[in-house]
Request: fold
Amino acid sequence: MGIVTLFHLVAVVHFYFGFYYDQKYITEPDQKFRKFEFGGRFIYLTIWNLVFQCIYFTVALLNDLIGSNEPVPKNKPLIRKIRDYLFATFAFPFAFNVGLMFHVLMIIDRNLVMPKEVDEFFPFWLNHLVHTNVMIFMAIELFITPRKYPCIKSAMAGMVIIQAIYLGWIFCIKANTDRWVYNVLSVLSWPERIGFFAFSLSIPITLYFLGQFINNLVWGSKTKEETTSKKKKAKAGKSA
Reply:
């Protein structure tokens, strides 16, 4: 088993266990936290992102086993295409969106995102699994596996759709519970709220381009070298 495959296996076990523990054992102990019976734990983007990580690393592991990790595979398997798309459009942008937004708001005022009372039923290690480790694993993944980023049109379509669905879900929860999912939305005026939504929606898009930029820095030269090498071999074969 190669190091990349081992890493993906660890990631799969890591995130699936986090998801299982969250769904099985995290219960909000009093009325103060039971205000969101509607939607359960899936009211939070953090849980959506945890699902994204589970799906991505499952696909990445399958690609290790039946696909290809070459910088430029001659015939790119479908599983590799799916892996590359999921990384660029969902896994990387949302991991850093969730992680950065959470830690920034915690620094500003933890009551805006996770009041201290939550520590009573949401363990420290799980908090970091869903808000910190997601970024660490994605950063490692960026540097150990090559990928081709999808075309901007295709990537933006996927990102806009998933963000629109979650934004609609937030308003659906508000309509059914008369409360905002995140405390920060409660202290903002409507103009500020709209600005916050616009800013939040722009972050994953910005992270998409950042990921693409870093990916080109890390893998661009290797991709070009392998492409050039394959072209030379193809020409040599024709000449023979």
In short: The chain is about 75% helix and 0% strand. Residues 117 and 164 are 31 Å apart (CA to CA).
